[in-house]
Specification:
Number of helices: 11
CATH class of the largest domain: Alpha Beta
Radius of gyration: 20 Å
CATH architecture of the largest domain: Alpha-Beta Complex
Number of domains: 2
Shape: globular
Number of strands: 16
Helix content: 25-40%
Order of helices and strands: EHEEHEEEEEHHEHEHEHEHEHEHEHE
CATH superfamily of the largest domain: Medium-chain alcohol dehydrogenases, catalytic domain
Oligomer: single chain
Length: 322
C-alpha cells in the first residue's frame, strides 16, 4: 500500500515521504480499515518535527485520526464488524500504522462505528479534537446546567467543545479573534460569541453569567481573562502548550479559588477514552456534531497538508489516500 511516513524527526519537507509498504494484517483484537480520509492535527506535526518526539522503529506512518470501512478482522473480533463504517482515534500512538495510508490497523475499540448520517469527512475530523474537547468538558463532572467558556471556538477542539457542551445541556460562551471565526463559532451553536481582543470581553462574559468551566487553548495569553470571569471553585482546563511556559500568578489564582487542570490524551486512561468515544458517537448519531470547513489534500501532498496545519489553517485539513 502507499503510505506517508518518516523515519527521523525534522521539517516536513525534509523527512516526510510517500512509499510503498506492506499492507498490514490485523492481529488478535484488531481491525484493518480501508482509509477514506486521514485527519491532520497539530500533534502530528509536533511529533514529526521533534517538539514532542516519540520513538520510531522502522518507520512511522502519520496521523491518528481517520475514517473508512473495516475490511479485515483479527482473531476475537465480532465478524459482524466486517464492512462497518468507522472513525479512528490515536491510531499512531505507540504503533507505526497511522492513518495517512491506504490502510491502517488499530485495536478494535479504536475503530468506532460511524453513524450513517455522519460523513466520512466528519468522521476523520473527530479523534484528537473531539476526544480532547470531551475530556476538557467532563473531567470534572457533568456539564448539564453549567456555563462553559470555550476559548478559541473556531478551532477544531473549540468547535467540538461547543457542540458537545450544548448537546449535553450546558450554556456556552466562546471567544474568537475576528468576525469570520465568530461566524464559525456561532454556527457551532455557541450562545454568545465574544471577541477576546475587545476591552469589554470580561464584562460581556460576566453579563452572560459567571463561568463554571473553561476549555482553554492558550493559558498564558488568556489567564487574566479566565480569572476575571470564573466562579469560585470553577475549573480552567488547558489542552495546549505554548512555546514558552507562562508565569503563573499564584495569588490571583488563589483569590479566584480556581482549579487548574491539564489534559494530554496520550496519558488519559483507555477506559476514559472509550467512554469519550461512546459519548461522541451518541452526539454524532443525533446530528449534534458538524463539519468545519475542510481542506482536502492528496497523499502526495502530505508536506503541504502538514504545513497548512502548522501555519494555522482555519477549518480541518484532511488527506485522501486513494
Amino acid at each position: 500500500m502507499r503510505a506517508a511516513l518518516y523515519d527521523r524527526h525534522g521539517a516536513a519537507g525534509e523527512v516526510l515521504r510517500v512509499e510503498e509498504v506492506a499492507t498490514p494484517e490485523p492481529g488478535p483484537g484488531e481491525v484493518r480499515v480501508k482509509v477514506t480520509y486521514s485527519g491532520v492535527n497539530p500533534t502530528d506535526w509536533k511529533s514529526r518535527g521533534g517538539m514532542t518526539p516519540r520513538p520510531i522503529e522502522a518507520f512511522q506512518i502519520c496521523h491518528h485520526d481517520g475514517s473508512g470501512v473495516i475490511d479485515g478482522l483479527g482473531a476475537g473480533v465480532d465478524p459482524g464488524r466486517m464492512g462497518e463504517r468507522v472513525w479512528t482515534w490515536l491510531a499512531a500512538a505507540g504503533r507505526p500504522w497511522g492513518t495517512a495510508a491506504e490502510w491502517t490497523v488499530v485495536p478494535a475499540e479504536q475503530a468506532v462505528p460511524l453513524p450513517d448520517r455522519a460523513s466520512f469527512e466528519l468522521g476523520a475530523s473527530l479523534g484528537v479534537p473531539a476526544m480532547t474537547a470531551h475530556r476538557c468538558l467532563f473531567a470534572d463532572g457533568p456539564v448539564e446546567g453549567k456555563t462553559i467558556l470555550v476559548a478559541g471556538g473556531a478551532g477544531a477542539v473549540g468547535h467540538f467543545a461547543i457542540e458537545l457542551a450544548k448537546f449535553y445541556g450546558a450554556r456556552v460562551v466562546t471567544t474568537v479573534s475576528g468576525q469570520d471565526k465568530a461566524v464559525l463559532a456561532k454556527n457551532a451553536g455557541a450562545d454568545l460569541v465574544v471577541n477576546y481582543r475587545e476591552p469589554s470581553a470580561a464584562e460581556e462574559i460576566n453579563a452572560f453569567g459567571p463561568v463554571d468551566r473553561i476549555v482553554e487553548v492558550s493559558l498564558g495569553a488568556n489567564l487574566q481573562l479566565d480569572l476575571a470571569v470564573a466562579k469560585p471553585l470553577s475549573q480552567i482546563v488547558t489542552y495546549a502548550a505554548e512555546p514558552n511556559d507562562p508565569p503563573l500568578p499564584v495569588r490571583a489564582c488563589m483569590t479566584a479559588n480556581v482549579v487548574l487542570r491539564f489534559i494530554l490524551l496520550y496519558g488519559v486512561p483507555r477506559d476514559v477514552l472509550g467512554h469519550a468515544a461512546r459519548d461522541i458517537t451518541t452526539a454524532l448519531a443525533s446530528g449534534a456534531l458538524t463539519e468545519l470547513p475542510v481542506h482536502i489534500f492528496s497523499l502526495d501532498e502530505i508536506v503541504a497538508a502538514q504545513d497548512a496545519v502548522q501555519n494555522g489553517a482555519v477549518g480541518k485539513v484532511l488527506i485522501a489516500p486513494a
